[in-house]
Design a protein that fits this description.
This protein is α/β, with parallel strands linked by helices and 216 residues long. Helices cover 52% and strands 12% of the residues. It has 11 helices and 5 strands, in the order βαβαβαβαβααααααα. A 5-stranded parallel beta sheet has the order 2-1-3-4-5, sandwiched between helices. Helix 1 links the parallel strand 1 (3-8) and strand 2 (28-34). Helix 7 (150-160) packs across helix 10 (195-204). The two termini are 25 Å apart.
C-alpha cells in the first residue's frame, strides 16, 4: 500500500528536501505541498492524503490548529508533526491532544521520520519517551469515572499497546465497525479526544495492569 502524504512547511528548501527523502521510499508518495496552514487544510480536503506532515510554526495558523481542523474534518487523514520545536514544548502536547499521531524533530534521522509516517498511516501512535513523559504529566484524570465494559477494556488494551483498529478487530474476532464503536465509547467515557490520550490515561491511572500492557 502506498502512503499518500501532504507536506505543510513554509520553507521551500525544507519541502524539497522532504519530498526527495520520502519519495526515495517505494511505499511513500508526496501528493501535495503547502506553505501555510489554511492552504494545507484546503489541499487536504481536495487530495484526501493518508498523512499530513506539518511544521508547528507556520505563517498563518499554527500546526496545532492544523492538526485539530484536519482530525475534526478529515478523520481518515492522520497528522504527523515535524518541527524544530523542543519535544517538551507545550505546543507538542497540544498537537497530540488535538489528534497528532506522531512527533519528529527535524534533527532526527531519516529512518525515524519514515517509520513515524508509516506508523501514523496505520493509526499507530509514535512518540519519543520525552514527549510521552510530558504528555502524561499534562494529563488530568477524568472527574467522573464511568466503568468500561469488559470488551471496551480489551479494545483499550489493544489501543494502549499500539494496535490499529483492524488489528484489534482481528485479535478479538469482531467487526471493524464494532471496534470503531467501542473506541468512540471509550473516548467518551474517559473524557478524552484521541486514542493517544486514552492510552496514556489507561497507563497513568493504572486502569490496565502491567501484565495486560506487556502481553503480546
Amino acid at each position: 500500500m502506498t502512503v499518500r502524504i501532504l507536506l505543510i512547511d513554509d520553507h521551500p528548501v525544507v519541502r524539497r528536501g522532504l519530498r526527495a527523502v520520502l519519495e526515495a521510499e517505494s511505499d511513500l508518495e508526496v501528493v501535495g505541498e503547502a506553505d501555510a496552514g489554511m492552504r494545507g487544510i484546503s489541499l487536504a480536503h481536495k487530495l484526501r492524503p493518508d498523512v499530513v506532515l506539518t511544521d508547528l510554526l507556520l505563517p498563518d495558523i499554527d500546526g496545532v490548529q492544523v492538526t485539530q481542523r484536519i482530525r475534526a474534518e478529515l478523520p481518515e487523514t492522520q497528522v504527523v508533526i515535524l518541527t524544530s520545536v523542543d519535544e517538551e514544548d507545550g505546543s507538542v502536547v497540544r498537537a497530540v491532544h488535538g489528534g497528532a499521531m506522531g512527533y519528529v524533530l527535524k534533527s532526527a534521522d531519516i529512518a525515524e521520520l519514515v517509520q513515524t509516517i508509516r506508523s501514523g498511516a496505520e493509526g499507530q501512535v509514535h512518540l519519543s519517551s520525552r514527549a510521552t513523559a510530558r504528555l502524561i504529566q499534562e494529563m488530568r484524570s477524568p472527574k467522573i469515572h464511568i466503568p468500561l465494559t469488559g470488551r471496551e477494556r480489551e479494545v483499550l488494551r489493544g489501543m494502549a499497546i499500539g494496535r490499529t483498529n483492524k488489528e484489534i478487530a482481528r485479535s478479538l474476532d469482531i467487526a471493524l465497525s464494532t471496534v470503531k464503536s467501542h473506541v468512540r465509547s471509550i473516548l467518551d467515557k474517559l473524557g478524552v479526544d484521541s486514542r493517544t490520550q486514552a492510552a496514556l490515561n489507561a497507563v497513568r491511572s493504572q486502569m490496565l495492569s502491567p501484565e495486560e500492557l506487556q502481553a503480546a
